[in-house]
């Protein structure tokens, strides 16, 4: 009788613990989650928001048929590479870029914008 009671109480206790562990829900993520390795300080946060805006704009262009998914992915990869290069350059120089470096990154960013604009214009509907 004692063994039966001990086994029954152990089984009941393990079931109670298992159900509470299985019933626990993970909290839903709120807002934008920080990606690993990204800092959202002043300049980095501004770059992150600009990158997110550009990605959303490219996704909308794909939905509207103005770009192919492959083109959008290429532009996103190029923009990420530009951002990573800028962050690496800024980090290696102690947080400050020279005027020549700033101008070089501005030109690269402008060239990317022009490529995106040209690709969208090439596939734009003629009636609009």
Amount of helix: over 70%
Major β-sheet annotation: none
**Which term fits the overall shape?**
elongated
Order of helices and strands: HHHH
Question: Treating each run of at least 4 consecutive H or I residues as one helix, how many helices?
Answer: 4
Q: Taking Cα atoms only, what radius of gyration do you get, to the nearest Å?
A: 26 Å
What is the beta-strand fraction?
A: under 5%
Write down the overall mean pLDDT: 78
Residue windows where pLDDT falls under 50 for at least 5 positions: 28-36
- The helix/strand class is mainly alpha
What is the tally of beta strands? Answer: 0
First and last CA, distance: 86 Å
Please characterize this protein's 3D structure.
- The protein has 128 residues and is mostly helical.
- Helix content is 72%, strand content 0%.
- It is built from four helices and no strands.
- It has helices at 2-23, 42-63, 69-92, 99-122.
- Helix 2 packs antiparallel against helix 3 (69-92) and helix 3 (69-92) runs antiparallel to helix 4 (99-122).
- It starts with a helix and ends in a 6-residue tail after the last helix.
- The model is unreliable at 28-36 (pLDDT under 50).
């Amino acid at each position: 009788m004692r063994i039966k009671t001990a086994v029954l109480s152990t089984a009941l206790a393990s079931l109670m613990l298992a159900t509470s562990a299985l019933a626990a829900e993970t909290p839903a993520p709120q807002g934008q989650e920080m990606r690993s390795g990204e800092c959202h300080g002043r300049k980095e946060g501004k770059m992150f928001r600009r990158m997110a805006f550009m990605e959303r704009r490219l996704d909308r262009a794909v939905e509207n048929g103005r770009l192919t998914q492959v083109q959008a992915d290429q532009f996103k990869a190029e923009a990420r590479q530009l951002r990573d290069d800028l962050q690496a350059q800024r980090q290696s120089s102690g947080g400050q870029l020279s005027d020549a470096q700033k101008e070089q990154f501005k030109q690269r960013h402008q060239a990317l914008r022009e490529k995106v604009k040209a690709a969208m214009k090439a596939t734009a509907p003629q009636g609009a």
